[in-house]
Design goal:
Blueprint lengths: L1 H10 L7 H25 L11 E5 L8 H14 L4 E5 L11 E4 L8 H4 L1 H9 L3 E4 L3 H10 L4 E5 L11 E7 L27 E5 L10 H12 L4 E11 L6 H4 L1 E6 L4 H10 L3 E7 L10 H11 L4 E5 H4 L12 E10 L2 H20 L1
Parallel strand pairs: 1-5, 1-6, 2-4, 2-5, 6-7, 7-8, 9-10, 9-11, 11-12
Antiparallel strand pairs: 3-4, 8-12
Helix pairs in contact: 3-5
Amino acid sequence: MLKQKMADRLRRSGKNRDAGDYVLSGLASLYNAGLTFRNRLLDRKRGVRYLPVPVISVGNIVAGGTGKTPMVRTLARMLSKMGLKVAILSRGYGGGLEKKGGLVSDGKEIICSVSEAGDEPFLLAETSSAMVYVGADRFKNGLDAVARGANIILLDDGFQHRRLHRDLDLVLVDSRYPLGNGRLLPRGILREDPVGLLRAHALIFTHWTFCETIPRERAEALCVWAEQAELPCFFCQHRQVDRALPLPPPEKAGKLMVFSAIADGRGFADTLRQQGLTVVLTLIFPDHHSYGPSAMHQLEARAREAGADALVTTAKDAVKLPVPSEWSMPLYVKDAEVSFRDHAAFEEWLEGRIQDFLEEEQS
């Protein structure tokens, strides 16, 4: 409850401000001053380290999820199709290897547990053929990946990780609320001033609905600004796909309990409702929440109390839970896949940029 109240405060506008808003605004000013000083140093390339292969960063300028994990997976698949050996570098937030770092997968075999890797890197290791590393020192991990044969690096959530040079900065923007309430942390959800988007090489608008109308005036205004800045824009939608046991159609699925520990848990449940499914209970845990050994029995008990016939969760949550076949109630797992409005155009643009990098290395 407290977490949701804080989340709602971060997204609300400047109207009807209270004392708490003024305190948070003061802290946001201090945060901005420190960030501005840091960025000026990095703009001069002070302390920036370079890897011997091209680095592509996928990031955003807001706190919370914009669909980075499925986008990183999609890019890894695209790059592999181009004949490149890909390594993904992630912070591994919440995992046991976050501080000391380490290899999660060599592209063929997963080497550590989900508790060591963190949920998102482990999911990337399960669902892609890329090498996956976690740890705060991404330069060190990058060197190790190159030694293992990687010839291109994907930096997961790297837009603010400027101490590692990147050749391509892709910034994801949620079309529903592209800049949150327009305020910096901790008064809003912006990680930095929107002018930082000028460092990007392209903006990718996520959750851009293709077949139905949604309010996206702010996203469209940002597109106009990007075009004026000669910043390419691409558009995609995250579609849900089944993992393991397929979720039946609405008329056969029965009543569902939905639970998740992701940045947009409410949106996940709303998407299921939009598909005509009957959701009788939604449990939203903090992002990266670690489920305990008794979680399966506790969740099933809550589902039965609510009169649910089955449970639904995300692939990011499922990697931290017993496999669906071990549950006494049906457990359905949904994953997110990226669908570009014009996949061919984005792939052609990306391949052109990669070719430029490789030609520069050879010259």
